[in-house]
Amino acid sequence: MIDQQLAQLSNLLIILTIVLYVLALIGFGADLSGVTQRRSDQKLRARTRERAELATVGADAPRSASPGVGAAAAPTATGPEDSAAPAAGTTTSSLGPRGFGYVMASIGAVLHITAMVLRGVATGRVPWGNMYEFSMSSSALIIALFVLISIRRKDLRLLGTLVMLPVLVLMLIAQTAWIIPASELTPSLQNTHWLIIHIGIAIIATALSGLGAIVAALQLLSTRVGRVRAARSADGRELGRFWGPVSALTDRIPSAEQLEALCFRLHSLGFICWTFTLIFGAVWANEAWGRYWNWDPKEVWTFVIWVVYACYLHARATRGFRGNKAAWFALAGFACVIINYTLVNLVINGLHSYSGLG
Amino acid sequence: MSRRKHAGRGAAKPDPSAEDAEQQKEQMGTAGGRDRRIAPEASDLRQSGSGKPSLPKLGVRGTLLFLWRQLTSMQTALFLLLLLAIAAVPGSLYPQRNVDPSKTDQYLSEHGSWAKFLDALGFFDVFSSVWFSAIYLLLFVSLVGCVVPRLNVHLRQMRSRPPRTPSRLNRFVGHTRVHVEGVDAETLTAQAHRRLRRGRYRVDTLEEPGGARSVTAERGYLRETGNLLFHIALLCVLIGVAAGGLTQYRGQISVVEGQGFSNSLAEYDSFDKGAWYDDSNLPPFRFTLDDFRAEYDTSQNEHRFGQPTKFEADVSVDDPDKGEFSKTLRLNHPLHVAGSTMYLLGNGYAPEITVKDPKGNVVAQGPVHAVPTGDMGYTSQVVIKAPDAQPQQMAVVGFFLPTGVIDEKGPHSQFPGLVNPELALTVYNGDLGLDGGTPQNAYQVDVSSLTPVQDEDGNQSLLRMSPGDSTTLADGSSVSFDGVKRYAAFDVRRDPFQGFTLVAALSSVLGLVLSLYVPRRRVWVRAVPEGDGVVLEVAGLARSDDDRLQDDVRALAHDLAPEPADAPDAARPPAPGADSTEPRPSHEGPAQ
Ligand code: HEM
User: Where is the chain membrane-spanning (chain A) (predicted)?
Assistant: First the structure.
């Protein structure tokens, strides 16, 4: 029933994918260090120039009022039409390290998805029946989302390192510690439609949480840079060896406000997916064990994740928590996702016999 | 494309009226501003620690009101939510009684007084503990206190007309100002009115001094509706769970192949019911277990070998409503019968054993439920009590091994399937202690007070038998192993509220989607006569994250005052210095 040859091919493709992702990481990493090494005061000058140019072209929308970061974002954040303009021209004119990284990531993503499809065909079911498959499928989704989003928003490709690195770590752990040969499912998982729906949505939710956490972290970083810059320029000091490169990075990505909006969008979709994960999980548990909720460790942690993300959404609407304080809740939510994924599967044993590592 | 400006809550707010809207929202949900002013006083009181509380301005009623406002504020809701998440964590770290009572007992016996201390604090019953309940009850009280006033405000708003057009529109999103020739204010506003209506806005046209007219429109009431639906649905989920807990029942049974079960309290191995459940309601159905099949993985994969791949139970059911029918139960495929649901949740072996006492009387016969010890190979414990045996009572104790070996680890089974079924038994004589009146577990016996039957050499006899074997012991008693059957364990359950709970949960998602994705916004159009035409102004206000507002406002302006066909926009230079006031031809928003 299990086609072991196809499964072997799938494993091989995963290894190739990892190699391509390593190459992509090298490309993105070289790009990032190139960007951050250029002197930041040079860039400051360039930025004022760009802003002046844009103003004479006739910027019709009033720019954001926030002084530091808002202005910094102007050249990069005005959408795809504008990012092809001279300011961002370096990325499109030749295949620099960033372009190389992006191409490697894209080819890798195609192989990655193919590998997951093959695993699915080999086992005759969706490729998320255990922890190894879950990790590989969610990382495929994260990379695919990243590649797709940055087709149009080229400025986001700068973040390739930040996406690639954690995904590679996850894939390497899965490849070395969690891998198990393609096999049939235990009877409690043998319920095709709930397996597809419940775990499929959990994968999407996890991927959105992962991307959301990266964006939330960048948002916090970007705001911090703005504050440090304001403080130092008030004292007439340089940004220094740490904040200089960091500010070179945050200057090239969307502004803190735009990251906040993106963060919210990812998390609002993510929260809906987590809600569905909970509900469909409960429906499935009711079918399988006759209880829709039993406070099994996996259920407890999914509930905790859901509540923490509810905190995030609430915080955004609560006086005194808007913006950056809310972003910390988003990060806390992702920390819970990671705990649910590793500790709960591997250390705390519950009814969810999911890891497949008996 | 308008990533240019966000009126999102996290974003900077250039215009003051957005703050008005914020304030309005705070007042709807909470008592935001007022709390602040009172709070410091309250904390002063606490610090002074004086026995006589002096609350000159608040009084008893005021204090209560103040506490209520605190409880229903957004900050408190946030705090309680966070607390709820934190409080749930120990429930996953310590073995919970409701999940696995035997693990809890084991933990308690292994960890001594520390575990007792934790137990006193409720760490093994987190989800029914006082503190956990207190948190979620407070949260839901806060929710009610938060939802009810908002519901009132919202209902009032849904019935009222959109608020008046602000006198100055130039501070708002997408503000456009155009001179349109050859039309009057009335035609233009009527056109705007129609167009906004079609766009599902609630619209009102106002007459203003000087022959001017304005249209004020609002859209997105569903956002607040969704938000209220979401929170109310959460309340309903809690109600559904609680009501289900009170009215449900759940019973466990295990049935050997060929045997039957009829639904009555006496036939259950264990039975739990909610406080409001009435046993006389037990639906009268019956079934027989015709066959039980199990398959196990035989691949060389170390993680998989011996893992079950299939459990199936064929049952013939006699349902008072549907009559007789047959059905195959599997994990994930329960049987719905007479308003209850029956789940196949466990299985095991039932070796058929006949025991005769030394006088040759049959004292025990038939399939015996062997209780799996939990290893992969289904090594199962067998206990037979024969109180009627003469001259002494007898007990037979040992193991059933589906694929038996006896090695240095003692008797155990290497594979859960019936490859080499074996019994490894010891026979005891003595007083079983059944007359003491204390109820005993049928699957356990205390052998310490019994004497094992010995063979001729004076050693304790250990019987090793395969199906068909029969052994006579030195004292004349005999044991025969007649065959092996399987048994299946079922849970029967009924929760009359589970459908309600599911509908409530799904409604909450609907509310969530509405409240996250419906933009709430206002749009205004004003036409002021000037010369032989009018000056048209259009602007909008986002009351939620709404990045399309600017495009939509500009598209509206464009519709109301279209370009002359022969004048391509791009050819016209924009007026220098024009920021928000655009002269007639410059409609070039990103909208086009
Ligand atoms: C039972 C626990 C609660 C949960 C899980 C929860 C969850 C949420 C979530 C996920 C949102 C964002 C989605 C939306 O806008 O509808 C939200 C919004 C909101 N919640 Fe709650 N909530 C809870 C209790 C409360 C309480 C007690 C209050 C009253 C103080 C409250 C007031 C609000 C308000 C006013 C909003 C709207 C924020 C906005 O305008 O975006 N919630 N809630």
Answer: 12-35, 100-122, 134-151, 158-180, 192-221, 262-285, 300-315, 327-348
Query: What count of other Cβ atoms lies within 10 Å of the Cβ of residue B379?
Result: 24
How far CA B240 is from CA of A40, A272, A284, B125, B141, in Å, comes to 59, 21, 18, 21, 16
Among all chains, which residue has been given the structure tokens 């709430």?
B520
Instruction: Please give the full DSSP string across B504-568, using - where no structure is assigned.
Output: HHHHHHHHHHHHHHSPPEEEEEEEEEETTEEEEEEEEEESSS-TTHHHHHHHHHHHHSPPPTT--
Q: Is the pLDDT of residue A357 over 90?
A: no
CA–CA gap between residue A223 and residue A253 (Å, rounded)? 12
- CA of residue B131 to ligand 1 center, whole Å: 22
Q: Are strands B173-181 and B335-337 parallel, antiparallel or unpaired?
A: unpaired
Contact A62 B89 (CB under 8 A): no
From the list B88, B309, B579, the residue facing A300 with the nearest CB is B88
Whether the CB-CB separation of B150 and B232 falls below 8 Å is answered with no
- Evaluate whether A164 touches A139 at the Cβ level (below 8 Å): no
Do A160 and A139 form a contact (C-beta atoms < 8 A)? Answer: no
Interchain pair B10, A323: CB under 8 A:
yes
**Which range (B143-147, B294-298, B315-319, B365-369) has the least confidence?**
B294-298
H runs (alpha helix) in B30-100: 32-48, 59-71, 74-88, 90-93
* Residues of chain A found within 8 Å of residue B177, distances taken between Cβ atoms: none
Number of other CB atoms surrounding residue B419 within 10 Å: 14
Q: Distance (Å, rounded) from C-alpha A299 to C-alpha A289? A: 14
**Token digits for B152?**
């009132």
Does residue B499 contact residue B339 with C-beta atoms inside 8 Å?
no
Residues touching ligand 1 (Cβ under 6 Å) are: A 310, 313-314, 317; B 25, 29-30, 72, 74, 77, 81, 139, 142-143, 146, 227, 230-231, 234, 512, 515-516
* Residue B562 CB neighbours (<10 A): 10
Q: Which of residues 68-107 of A touch B (CB under 8 A)?
A: 70, 77-81
The predicted model gives A48-59 an average pLDDT of 48
Tokens coding B1: 């494309």
**Residue A306 backbone phi and psi in degrees, to 5:** -60, -45
Residue type, B559: D
- CB-based contacts of A123, cutoff 8 Å, min separation 6: A2, A3, A7, A129, A182, A183, A184
Name residue, tokens 């504008």: A82
Say which residues have a Cβ less than 8 Å from residue B315's Cβ, sequence separation at least 6: B287, B288, B289, B290, B326, B327, B328, B329, B335
Q: What is the Cα gyration radius of chain B? A: 39
pLDDT band at A68 (very low <50, low <70, confident <90, very high): very low
> Is the Cβ–Cβ distance between A101 and A160 less than 8 Å?
yes
Within 8 A by CB and 6+ apart from A198, the residues are A277, A280, A281, A284
Q: Are B207 and B193 in contact (CB under 8 A)?
A: no
| Average of per-residue pLDDT values in chain A | 80
pLDDT digits (tens, 9 = 90+) for A98-157: 889 999 999 999 999 999 999 989 888 888 888 889 899 999 999 999 999 888 777 778
Would you place residue B230 in the very low, low, confident or very high pLDDT band (cuts 50, 70, 90)? Answer: very high
Q: Give the pLDDT band (50/70/90) at residue A50.
A: low
Residue identifier of the C-alpha nearest atom 28 of ligand 1 = B143
Q: Is residue A241 exposed (0-12), middle (13-18) or buried (19+ Cβ within 10 Å)?
A: exposed
Residue ranges per structural domain of chain A? 1-184, 189-358
Please state whether beta strands B478-494 and B249-256 pair in parallel, antiparallel, or not at all (unpaired).
Answer: antiparallel
Q: Do A187 and B574 touch (CB under 8 A)?
A: no
Q: Smallest CA–CA separation between A224 and chain B, in Å?
A: 15
- Predicted local confidence at residue B283, as pLDDT: 82
